[in-house]
Amino acid sequence: MPKWAIVLASTVLKAGLQPLGKAPPIDPAYARSVVDHYSWYDSSNAIRDLGYEIPCARESLERAIIGERRRQAGTYSLGQPRRSDAITHAEPAAEALPPLLITGVPGWLGNRFVDILINGDRHGQLPPPRRVRLLVEPRNAKLLDLPANFEIFPADIGDPVAVGQALTGIHTVFHLAGAIYPPQIATLYRVNAQGTRNLVDQCIQQGVRRLLYMGTDSICGHGTPSQRIFDEHTPARPYRHYGRSKWQAERYILEQTAAGNIDGTSLRGFWFFGPFAPPRQQDFLDMMHWRRQLVFGHGKNYRSISHVDNTVAAFLAAENAPATYGQWYWIGDLKPDYTVDEIYQLLCDGLGTPFRPLYIPPWVCGAMRTVDAVMGKFGCLHPTLHGIGKFSFDIAGEVSAAQRDFGYEPVISLPEYARSLATSATNPQPVAVGSPR
């Protein structure tokens, strides 16, 4: 592409994105000064006087690529202690709990889980020390550098032999891995349904009984006029292929628990918030700085919130609770019925911006659902169309069953999270891609 075209495109993009508070991928000034130019430095003096060795360009580029992938995956600083009492790369302390296998790292929830195991939660509370094995996609194995009590085990979740080996000596599995917005719908079933089935089968083969699964609100779809808020008795009505693939996985776990082969539990999350969020979530938060915030629908529909810290706390609390075997639970805020308008208002207040909604009529959501359904017939999925399509629905649930059976108590509420945004804006959290939510 010629330089003039790059400069022109970046100029047009900058003009179009500025009113929305966004920046173009490349600034026009940068394009004019850098594109089509190169720099050359003579290192002969450094080589002669200092013994400097010019690094291999290929190795430098490979390191740069790994560094960028780690940044995108939210693992660039993952594993680094931020507290004086954090678990470090020194030999781990005596294990207070049996060995644990976690899937879904790197990922939004998985990264935060590892971070809490190392640095403690937002109140500085450290979980008891234990040996942790991470089942990691082989392509992501080089993105992690963690303390000595963490073991990286590269394996595809659909590989029976590798997963069986990963389960050797393990007592409990926290199954967080999942595909949510892959380009091809077949990936949802391969990872979510078939991958989970393989993991459960290998748990049975290896004698690993305890398995806790990260479920989703999409298993029940959305509320109805007669029941706007889900409870523990709400029947499954999976929403589209994502909900169906996650429901198939959850159903297999609970069936094998009923058969006496494992002790499985499913914890269903809602709209995620919190540290290590992927770029799509940061884009949503950035919208709060726009002159007008887009609200798809009328803004009066209910949406429950699952902060990742609350979800981590739920897994840790439910692990040793026999009452949870064979059950599923909603995991969210104590208040289940935030309206979308209330959520936006809290976020804008936390960021110090006025809430001036621009309501997009519900029929637009209906149109997006139609397009989403047609694309699904061809095996394709677009995250934006899918998300807009369900944005106007009631998707909310109460957490009373989790409180009753394993003492679930959220460690942070949505208003507390919103108030923390002012601090995190000047001290940004790392991001993660390929998250389970």
Question: How would you sum up this structure, described in words?
Answer:
The model is unreliable at 433-437 (pLDDT under 50). The protein has two domains: 3-54, no CATH class; 72-426, NAD(P)-binding Rossmann-like Domain (Rossmann fold). Strands 3-2-1-4-5-6-10 form a seven-stranded parallel beta sheet, sandwiched between helices. It has 15 helices and eleven strands. Helix 7 links the parallel strand 4 (172-175) and strand 5 (210-216). With 437 residues, the chain is an alpha/beta fold. The radius of gyration is 23 Å and the shape is globular.
Give keywords.
two-stranded parallel ribbon; 437 residues; 7-stranded parallel β-sheet; 11 strands; Rossmann fold
Outline of this structure?
This protein is an alpha/beta fold. Helix content is 41%, strand content 12%.
Task: Give the topology.
Elements: H1 3-17, H2 28-34, H3 44-50, H4 57-73, E1 100-103, H5 108-119, E2 132-136, E3 150-154, H6 160-166, E4 172-175, H7 185-206, E5 210-216, H8 240-258, E6 263-269, E7 271-273, H9 279-286, E8 293-296, E9 305-307, H10 308-318, E10 327-331, H11 340-351, E11 357-360, H12 362-377, H13 383-390, H14 400-406, H15 414-426
Parallel strand pairs: 1-2, 1-4, 2-3, 4-5, 5-6, 6-10, 7-9, 8-11
Helix pairs in contact: 1-2, 5-10, 6-7, 7-8, 11-15, 12-13
